[in-house]
Amino acid sequence: MRKVTEISPTQDSCPIELRHLRVAAYCRVSTESEEQTSSIELQVRHYLHLISVNFNWENAGIFAERATGLKMKDRPEFRRMIAQCRKKRIDLILTKSISRFGRNTLDMLRSLRDLFGLGVEAYFEQEDMWQNEQRIQILLTAYCALAQAESEDMIRNIK
Predict the structure, then answer these.
(1) Are 77 and 68 in contact (CB under 8 A)?
(2) Alpha-carbon dihedral of residues 68, 74, 44, 23, nearest 10 degrees?
(3) Taking the chain, what is the end-to-end CA distance rounded to the nearest angstrom?
């Protein structure tokens, strides 16, 4: 009689909703306006709910701030989230859109490369894009460049 050895699937081969993950969300608005205040509150509530209804996900924190997406030094919550990733406390980051994650192309791509190296996944809800998919790296670059250009145009218009 032959002996059969069963090889169980790794966690990585399971759908994301079925994996035990420490999930964080990054929420950002760029101004203090009334519309932006309600926007950040809605983002926070949305991600708290989304994480809580998935029984395989553990809340690793909601990182929310009012800051421009152009300068990393002006984004303490983003830096704190990345520090938590380096300490292996976050497996997945959810965010509303690429432009909420950042508007500086170079900083954004560096951050995503760092996250990839740490084994942290990022999901951009509005674009329905996963950071670790090879085919979207070009699209991410284009989205980042457009978000940066849009932000720079707003600054010029305000001046």
Answers:
(1) no
(2) 120
(3) 81
